[in-house]
Sequence to fold (196 residues):
Amino acid sequence: MSDAAEMSRQTTPETPNGTSPTMSRDEINAQHAAHAWTPSQLLARLEALGINADTIEHDPMWTVEDSRRLRIDINEEGHCKSLFLRNKKGQMWLVVMLEDQRLDIKALGLALDQRLSFAKPDRLMEYLGVIPGSVTPFAIVHDTEGAVQVVLQKRMMDCKALHYHPLRNFLTTSISPADLTDFLRAENHEPVLLDF
Fold:
């Protein structure tokens, strides 16, 4: 299976005709792990850390294409995607990057000295407690064992604000790059910054 096909399978639940699924917010919430934080819990954690974050509600966004279609300001910078990867030894990486760039998984693997592939949805649920379509750096709150290494794209960190789902794909939270880094460190995940 190609990297693109595997990434699509990881990020979008399967539908018979290949379109984004139609699910209610309650159905989406029910798909997440029982121990998974709610968006309200996450936003309370950000507030407790003194992190300013603005959150908006919208229709569920399963893909980058959904995000672009539903966006109010099509020229707004800092919209991102998060990809969950693994190596053959079962080590996990969460790669966070701007949505407009395709990931060269081989080049990233060389930079990390790893042979990487896309992780399957069951690993996503096990380590990050979210479903495909809701992958986000905020899901690191579920990795209490520190098994997931976070990789941030350097170019992304130059944006004024970054936009991620706060654990559910029917919400988007805007946060500064500095606050994202502070959040990850507060959750005991020192990010790796790479130029890719």
